[in-house]
Design goal:
The structure holds 2 protein chains of 2 kinds.
Chain A (H helix, E strand, L loop, with lengths): L4 E6 L4 E7 L1 E6 L2 E5 L6 E5 L2 E7 L2 E8 L2 E5 L3 E6 L2 E3 L5 H17 L3 H24 L1
Parallel strand pairs in A: 1-9
Antiparallel strand pairs in A: 1-2, 3-4, 3-6, 5-8, 6-7, 7-10, 8-9
Chain B lengths: L3 H57 L7 H4 L6 E7 L9 H18 L3 E7 L1 H11 L3 E5 L9 H16 L5 E9 L5 E9 L5 H4 L8 E3 L2 H75 L1
Classes of the chains: A alpha+beta, B alpha/beta.
């Protein structure tokens, strides 16, 4: 049996996934990295992208995450995300809605800080739109 | 001695009170379910984040240049007390317990000669503390968590606290709220949020692992600390909401039971005085007949 590591995917609202997996791909701030068992301890921020969960040498589940943190130890991988959308729920209509929402946020933004946050949200939403177009 | 009519009126009024309290109990019970689920669902994230930050903090304390939110400002002259209560009453000792704990804390701090600032989340706390500590209250939020607690609201509180901290307006921040245990018991908790309290386990350096940081530990800390503040606030608000509904349910349950007891006692009294009246009338008739 192949080695496994414990993956925990947690959003503020709930624990999305807690399972023994063979490999995870995590969209780190400085590039996507794969986590296998006995990975060196790492802490990384995340950028918008897909978290791919590998089971039996194939992608078992994919989640689009908008950002967050990942903590890797030799036997565990904890991914704290701001928001995670299972691949099945990521449709073009959903992404378009998010893009529109983010754009309206930019318009309403008062002050640089708000505008920067809204820009980030728009970036994530546009990536979502791109990803969903490629999927369906 | 109240007349029979008075008694009847009282019984019916207690009956309608009982109907109201038992309805409120049921509403609280259904809200409690939802609030409890939300509070329990939020625990894993908050706990993991605390652990992650604990590991990180364990590694970076003692080094110079640690962010102030972690290491503190180096003094503790001004304290910020974040008092979290409900917006509404009728939930037993819930609000007063939190307020009492806050008062104790505030008095302790004032006695030590510290300056105190108060931030009220929830209308009840504001109303009560305003009487004694009007000048100390810096800000308040009274329209949060109307239906459910939303993360955005917690974030508003957290960014307000962050802003005050970076503006050098206080050195130490403590949150007072009720941690949900069961529907019957809520534990009033003081939680220090700034500077981040490093868990004792993480402080012994042999247990902490050395991490690789991407992009850098400073940047991660810079993002993680405000985020953690928001998460801890969110969690406290969720715990508080669940506690409130639990306390309300218990309070309304005992109110319903009291009303039931009161109705029994009043009905007994009503029947007795009715019987006494009948007996009195009989005596009058009989003695009238005997007199003839």
């Amino acid at each position: 049996m192949a080695d496994t590591l414990k993956l925990e995917l947690v959003s503020p609202e709930r624990l999305l996934l807690s399972a023994q997996v063979e490999m995870v791909l995590v969209p780190g701030a400085e590039g996507v990295f794969g986590v296998l068992p006995r990975h060196a301890p790492t802490l990384s921020t995340l950028r918008p992208g897909f978290v791919d969960v590998y089971q039996g040498s194939a992608v078992k589940e994919r989640f689009f995450v908008t950002g967050g943190f990942a903590e890797v130890t030799p036997s565990t991988c904890t991914v704290l995300v701001d928001e995670a959308i299972p691949q099945a729920a990521l449709t073009a209509a959903f992404a378009a809605e998010r893009v529109a929402w983010a754009k309206s946020q930019i318009e309403q933004a008062a002050g640089d800080d708000d505008r920067r946050k809204a820009q980030d949200a728009l970036g994530a939403a546009e990536m979502m739109a791109e990803a969903s177009a490629g999927l369906h | 001695m109240p007349s029979l009519k008075d008694l009847r009126v009282r019984i019916s009024s207690v009956q309608s009170t009982k109907k109201i309290t038992s309805a409120m109990k049921m509403v609280a019970a259904s809200k409690l379910r939802r609030a409890q689920d939300a509070a329990e669902a939020a625990r894993p994230y908050a706990e993991r984040m605390e652990r992650m930050l604990g590991n990180l903090a364990g590694g970076s304390t003692g080094r110079s240049g640690a962010p102030a939110m972690l290491a503190g400002t180096g003094k503790e002259d001004t304290h910020l007390v974040v008092v979290m209560t409900a917006n509404r009453g009728l939930c037993g000792g819930f609000n007063s317990n939190i307020i009492r704990a806050s008062r104790v804390l505030i008095r302790e701090l004032l006695a030590k000669g510290k300056a105190v600032k108060i931030l009220c989340v929830g209308r009840k706390g504001l109303e009560s503390l305003r009487r004694d500590y009007k000048d100390l209250i810096v800000n308040s939020y009274t329209d949060f968590g109307r239906k459910v607690v939303i993360f955005r609201e917690a974030n508003t509180v957290a960014s307000m606290v962050t802003e005050m901290f970076t503006g050098g307006q206080f050195d130490v921040a403590t949150m007072v709220y009720a941690r949900f245990k069961t529907a019957m018991t809520q534990v009033v908790t003081r939680q220090q949020i700034i500077p981040f309290p490093i868990p004792a386990a993480a402080e012994s350096s042999d247990s902490t692992t050395v991490y690789d940081y991407e992009p850098s530990d400073k940047e991660i800390l810079g993002e993680l600390l405000p985020r953690n503040l928001a998460i801890q606030t969110f969690r406290a608000m969720l715990e508080n909401a669940a506690s409130e509904q639990g306390a309300k349910m218990t309070a309304m349950d005992s109110a319903t039971r009291n009303a039931g007891d009161m109705i029994n006692a009043l009905t007994m009294k009503y029947n007795r005085s009715r019987q006494a009246m009948i007996t009195k009338e009989l005596i009058e008739i009989i003695s009238g007949a005997e007199a003839l």
